[in-house]
Design goal:
It is a single chain. The chain is of the alpha/beta class. Helices cover about 40% and strands about 20% of the residues. It has three domains: about 80 residues, Arc Repressor Mutant, subunit A (Orthogonal Bundle); about 130 residues, Nucleotidyltransferase, domain 5; about 170 residues, ATPase, nucleotide binding domain (Nucleotidyltransferase, domain 5), CATH 3.30.420.40.
């Protein structure tokens, strides 16, 4: 299994921390000069020069030309060597896998989207997942020798620190991250899918300097990812963000969590799917009956497509769900007072059909003094948010060890 590249030769915790600080600066800010690094990290130029030299010898840092300034010497610009390390992100949805390879600078260099994969909570489904990941890694050629971390997104209750998933692949006492690491021969971590989407959007998406962000993932289920002061919020055991399990309805509908009346039962892709089938069974017309011959095989993707084709039945249901979502997102805004609320996930692909009722309900139900601080926007990364976030989390784990 690949070891952490920061611990190759340096055993001094202080020196390791300085190297991490330099790498972190390049990740968040981009290329820079030694003099600027010296000011930002409050270390002498000779000290920064020493560590830059060591990191270049390790192959992690490279020169990127000189800054042309009027008069005097032109300082050299340094930055991350993109080919020195790679990271794999795996985003597992209900019916598909998205897998990507990211270089050290955060660029996706290889990807495989929409791999047909029916998730089931069985050892056979886990075996199939491992095979897909292994096949993708094998396709990367020589770069697989420089893959340092892999991260898998899983919905539901996930403890990234212990490596346990309590919603998926919970078969025995061993953490699923350990099982995956042993199978794939790489360091493998897991994280909640919505938190990964939030982090992806924060690092590479719609977020532009905002430090307090709520990402609402409206897919088959419903969850939120929370960014506070620029960092993902995990909670005590990594279980933060279970927005879909607010007990708000007296509908006697049993949620997959085992309880009744959860928000997810009436405001999620699962709820939309159920409502569409119920109203078709009651005789209402929709283009879905022509699009999908066997309604037992109707998917959320079909419903999203019909909505965007302006199917009246689907639009009505999406708007109803959007209004419910907006009401309870208002509560999140009142509690967290975020700068930005990002609506993502598959249902957000209906764009204005879900965004307009969400925004209308937020204006109606949230406190005026609070909601004026919060901009409500649609995801920029759409279906790429999860896999980009997974790659970013895999890279961030270099600094957690």
């Amino acid at each position: 299994m690949v070891k952490n590249l920061f611990f190759k030769s340096d055993k001094s915790p202080k020196n390791i921390q300085i190297k991490k600080d330099i790498i972190t600066h390049f990740i968040s800010t981009g290329n820079d000069t030694i003099s600027e690094l010296s000011k930002i990290l409050d270390l002498s130029v000779p000290t920064i020069t020493k560590f830059i030299t060591e990191l270049m010898e390790q192959g992690l840092i490279a020169e990127f030309g000189k800054v042309h300034t009027p008069g005097g010497r032109h300082p050299i610009v340094y930055g991350l060597n993109p080919t020195s390390a790679y990271f794999v992100g795996v985003d597992m949805t209900r019916h598909h896998l998205h897998i990507a390879l990211m270089d050290f600078t955060g660029n996706i260099v290889e990807k495989q989207f929409g791999i047909s994969y029916i998730y089931e909570n069985t050892p056979e489904s886990l075996d199939q997942l491992c095979n897909y990941i292994q096949n993708f890694i094998d396709r990367t050629g020589e770069r697989k020798q420089k893959i340092f971390n892999v991260n898998l997104n899983i919905s539901g209750r996930v403890n990234p620190e212990s490596g346990y998933s309590y919603s998926s692949f919970y078969f025995n006492e061993r953490p699923v991250s350990e099982t995956l690491s042993n199978r794939l021969k790489y360091n493998v971590g897991i994280d909640n899918d919505t938190r990964a989407m939030a982090f992806g959007e924060y690092m590479k998406g719609i977020v532009d300097g905002e430090q307090n962000v709520i990402f609402v993932n409206v897919s088959w289920g419903l969850g939120v990812g929370i960014i506070i002061d620029g960092k993902p919020y995990y909670g005590k055991s990594g279980f933060s963000g279970e927005f879909g399990h607010f007990p708000v309805f007296e509908n006697e509908l049993l949620c997959h969590c085992g309880k009744k009346g959860c928000l997810e039962t009436e405001a999620s892709g699962l709820a939309i799917h159920r409502m569409v089938l119920e109203r078709i069974a009651n005789g209402e017309s929709t283009i879905l009956t022509n699009m999908v011959k066997d309604l037992n095989k109707l998917t959320l993707t079909d419903i999203i497509k019909a909505t965007n084709m302006e199917d009246t039945l689907c639009i009505e249901i999406i708007e109803e769900v959007g209004n419910k979502l907006g009401r309870y997102i208002s509560g999140l805004i009142n509690i967290f007072n975020p700068e930005l609320v990002v609506i993502g996930g598959q249902v957000a692909e209906t764009d204005g059909f879900v965004m307009l009722p969400i925004k209308s309900a937020i204006r109606k139900y949230s406190l005026n003094l609070v909601n004026k601080d919060s901009e409500i926007v649609a995801s920029k990364l759409t279906n790429k948010a999860g896999v980009i976030g997974a790659c970013m989390i895999a890279r961030s784990r270099l600094f957690a060890e």
